[in-house]
Amino acid sequence: MASEKELKSLRGTAKDWDRWREIELHTTFNVKNIDFSEADLHSLNFSSSVLSGANFSNANLSNANLKHVDFSGANFSNANLKGASLDAANLSKANFYKANLENASLRDAHLHEALLVDANLRGVNFLNANLRRADLKGVNLDDASLDKADLREASLKDADLSSIFLFHANLIDVDFSGSNLRSAELRSADLRGSKFIGTDLSGASLSGADLSDADMTCANLTQADLSVTRVLGTDFSKATLTGAGIKDWSINSDTNFSEVQADYVYFGSSEDGIVRFSDRRPHSGIFG
């Protein structure tokens, strides 16, 4: 196992690390709070090491093997982690402010209360990751996968989530306020108590989702599919529902439609690979 002294002596260049790996092919590291800021560590193998509290700010960790590493409380602000593998890593309370994680793999990673504000998360694989209470404000998640991820109580305010797939994700009490969820795939999602204040959900698929007690104030749900959704106690005040499909949705006396804008809606739908709304109300024109 490498000592802190040995690690510090090698932190300068990728050549140093390559030479180290030739000698110690199976070395792991157990060093806390070490400073790797601005270091070039691309393609490095840190797997199964303990580096909690380490400082990787502005470092280059592109394509690095960081599987199963304990990075709890580490600082990755402005770091380059493009293509890195962080599968099953402990990243709880880690700081990824403005980090580049494009196409990185974080399957089964633990990101409880991690800070990912303004990070580049394009193409990231978060399969089965724990993102509970993580701060993802302003992130870009184009082509990212959050299948089976736990996002309970996370903040995704002002994030770009257009066309994202959130199959089987746990989204209870998530804050999506101000986010772009145009054409997002949220079928059968558990969205109880979540906030969508001012969120763009136009064309989104929410069929079968549970939106009970969600706050949809001022949300744009134009042409969204809300068929078979549960909207018990949901607040739609000042939301736009023009052209939305509401076949067989479940409402109750606590569902709030105050000042809703809806020129027309659809009470029927069919699906043969593509959802098609039917039974327009009113049949022509708009609601008076």
Overview in brief:
With 288 residues, the protein is low in regular secondary structure.
Overview of the molecule:
The chain has 288 residues and is low in regular secondary structure. The chain has 2 helices and 2 strands, in the order ααββ. A two-stranded antiparallel sheet has the order 1-2. A hairpin with a 3-residue loop joins strand 1 and strand 2. The longest helix has 10 residues. The radius of gyration is 23 Å and the shape is elongated. The model has no long low-confidence stretch (mean pLDDT 90).
List the keywords.
288 residues; little secondary structure; 2 strands; 6% helix; elongated
Mean pLDDT: 90
Q: N- to C-terminal separation?
A: 75 Å
Q: How many strands, which pairing sense, and closed or not: the largest β-sheet?
A: 2 strands, antiparallel
- The spatial strand order of the largest sheet comes to 1-2
Poorly predicted sequence stretches spanning 5 or more consecutive residues: none
Number of strands: 2
Percent strand equals: under 5%
The count of helical stretches stands at 2
SS-derived structural category:
little secondary structure
Globular, elongated, flat, extended or rod-shaped: what is the shape?
A: elongated
